[in-house]
C-alpha cells in the first residue's frame, strides 16, 4: 500500500462546490435515450413535447435547490427581472457552460418574455425524421425553465418555439406582474 493521501469521500465534499463539467458524449447518449423513451410512449409531437417538458421539470426543481445553496447562499429572488437574469445567466451557465444568447420582452403583452438560444445543446445531437420536423427537443429545457420559475414563486408557462434558433416563450401569471409592480412602489 502506498502512503499517499487518501481521496476524500463524496460525503466529505462541500455542496457549495461541485464538478460542473459533464462529458458531452455521455450527455448526448443519455438525452438521446430520454427522447427515444418518451417517443415510444406518445402518439403525437405535442405529446412528446409535453413528456420532454415533464422530464425537464424534474431537473428544474433540483437545479433550484442546488443553485440557491451553491451560488446564492439560500438567497432567493423576489423581483421579476432578477429571476429572469438568474435563468439567463446562472442557470444557463450551470447547465450549458455559457449564458443564454438573448432575453427580450414582448411588445404586445407585458406578461411575455422571450429567452433566445440559437443552438440549444439538446437539439445538437438529435436526428429528426422528415415527417416529424416540428419536433423541438428544447421542450426539455422549457420544462427546466418552467420548474425553476414556478418553484421560486414566479408561476409561468414556458414553451419552446422555432424562431431565431429556439425561442423559449415565458408567459407569467398576472399575479407575478401585480406583485412586481407593488415591489417597485415600495
Question: What can be said about this structure in brief?
Answer:
The chain is of the alpha+beta class and 186 residues long. Helix content is 47%, strand content 13%. α2 (45-70) crosses α5 (139-151).
Strand content: 5-15%
User: Which residues sit in consecutive blocks of at least 5 with pLDDT less than 50?
Assistant: none
Spell out the helices and strands N to C.
Answer: HHHEEHHEEH
Number of helices: 6
Overall pLDDT confidence: 86
Gyration radius, in Å: 19 Å
Largest sheet: 4 strands, antiparallel
What is the number of beta strands?
4
How far apart are the first and last residues' alpha carbons, in Å? 66 Å
Percent helix: 40-55%
- Strand order in space, largest sheet: 1-2-4-3
Gross geometry? globular
Could you walk me through the main structural features you see in this protein, from its secondary elements to its overall organization?
With 186 residues, the protein is α+β, with helices and mostly antiparallel strands. It is 47% helix and 13% strand. It contains 6 helices and 4 strands. The protein has helices spanning 24-39, 45-70, 80-96, 121-124, 139-151, 174-184, and strands spanning 102-105, 112-117, 156-162, 166-172. The chain has a 4-stranded antiparallel sheet. Helix 2 (45-70) crosses helix 5 (139-151). The radius of gyration is 19 Å and the shape is globular. The mean pLDDT is 86.
Amino acid at each position: 500500500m502506498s502512503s499517499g493521501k487518501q481521496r476524500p469521500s463524496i460525503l466529505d465534499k462541500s455542496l457549495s462546490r461541485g464538478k460542473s463539467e459533464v462529458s458531452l458524449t455521455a450527455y448526448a447518449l443519455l438525452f438521446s435515450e430520454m427522447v427515444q423513451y418518451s417517443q415510444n410512449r406518445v402518439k403525437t409531437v405535442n405529446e412528446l413535447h409535453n413528456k420532454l417538458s415533464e422530464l425537464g421539470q424534474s431537473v428544474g426543481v433540483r437545479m433550484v435547490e442546488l443553485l440557491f445553496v451553491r451560488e446564492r447562499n439560500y438567497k432567493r429572488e423576489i423581483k421579476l427581472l432578477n429571476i429572469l437574469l438568474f435563468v439567463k445567466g446562472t442557470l444557463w451557465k450551470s447547465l450549458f457552460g455559457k449564458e443564454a444568447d438573448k432575453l427580450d420582452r414582448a411588445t404586445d403583452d407585458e406578461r411575455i418574455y422571450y429567452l433566445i438560444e440559437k443552438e440549444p445543446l439538446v437539439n445538437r445531437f438529435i436526428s429528426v425524421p422528415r415527417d416529424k420536423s416540428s419536433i423541438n427537443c428544447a421542450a426539455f429545457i422549457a420544462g427546466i425553465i418552467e420548474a425553476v420559475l414556478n418553484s421560486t414563486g414566479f408561476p409561468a408557462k414556458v414553451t419552446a418555439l422555432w424562431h431565431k434558433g429556439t425561442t423559449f416563450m415565458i408567459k407569467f401569471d398576472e399575479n407575478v406582474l401585480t406583485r412586481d409592480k407593488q415591489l417597485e412602489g415600495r
